[in-house]
Amino acid sequence: MATYLLKNLLLSSMLVGFMSCAVPLRYKRVTSAPPMKVLLNRDSVSLYKMQVYLFRRYYTGILMDKKINNTNRLVFVTELGMKIFDIKLVADSAEVVYCFSPLNKPKITNILKTDLQFLWLKSSSVNPDKMYENKNKEQIYIVEKNKKKYWYYISENKINKTRAKEGAFTNKKGHYSYTLNNEIEHAVLKHKGLLRLKIELQKIHHE
Amino acid sequence: MRNLFLVLFFLNGILFAQKTFRPLKDTLAFKEKIAQMAIKTNTLESDFTQIKTLSMLSEKMSSKGHFCFKKTNLLRWEYSTPYRYIIVINKDKMLIKDDVKLKKYDINSNKIFKEINNIMISCIDGNVLNTGKFKASYAENEWNYKIDLIPIAKEMRESLKQINMYFDKAVSSVTRIEMIESSEDFTTIDFTNKKINGDLSLEKFTLK
Domain of B68: which CATH number? Predict the structure, then answer.
């Protein structure tokens, strides 16, 4: 009985795993589709309310995104004024300018770098390898880069959801919502699997 | 016209001289005033303006709100701009409330909050000189006393280069705190509309 149950559990896990990596049936593969438009904030400086849950620790504060040419400088400061990190995103690379010493460990800074790149859609400048479209003209673009797969779920020319599969235990998802001006209003990044990390951003509108 | 420039130059010199801090001679008397302030202050309520200056990016981030302190170890930071947010430190518990959620944490789980709040509490209750964590130097000008605090521990110096505290001449309470980081970024918190030893209920330090 136990063997039967175990076999069934294994089979259903494999099926779920297989289904989660597959493009839904209502999407058909296409050779051309609208270009991927990344609708990031146009302000030279944007402020976000930011919450980070990392390894059972919780950090909250303000994230400043300052755009200088093609560079995004992301500075996270707690409400009481303590700087947690300062990360520079340039095209496909990220550099840690500063990280608060208790967090300044390669494992943590690497996660922060790749996740902020992912959240800031920095890898989306690459042309998609595969494109799919459904009847409602919603698209899924798949980009393969450095043995990683990035999925972009697009509707009305906006990237609503992203997914990255980097390995068996590092599946992460990003969700985005936009204002009428096509600026990012809210974004959430969530790791699924063994790694517990969640980053949540809410745009602060100046009064 | 030339005379006007001379007068302006002279006035500017006087104002600069008044603003400039000079080393304090009678530090013992000043320390005694700080100790008295610590004994006398049971509650403190004030508005605050906090400005974070990011030197490398030439940007400033400012927040405003209301601050409450009650002996012993009870703090409430209520931010009104840029968004509504309340942080309460009640002994070992940290409560955070925004428009939607209320979260409770053990303050020991967040070292940053713990350390900053310890510094804040010790600055307000006057015990900062007794913690043994800082090397202090004292200065004064026409209107204020100033204490420059340099962290002794190397780990703390990696994040925090110096803390400057300003007091009015009556040494009734702290008027400004400056926190200078090793990257030269700094945060200033100005306390205004202060009410010392007013009624402050314990309910202020519990959030529901």
Answer: 2.50.20.10
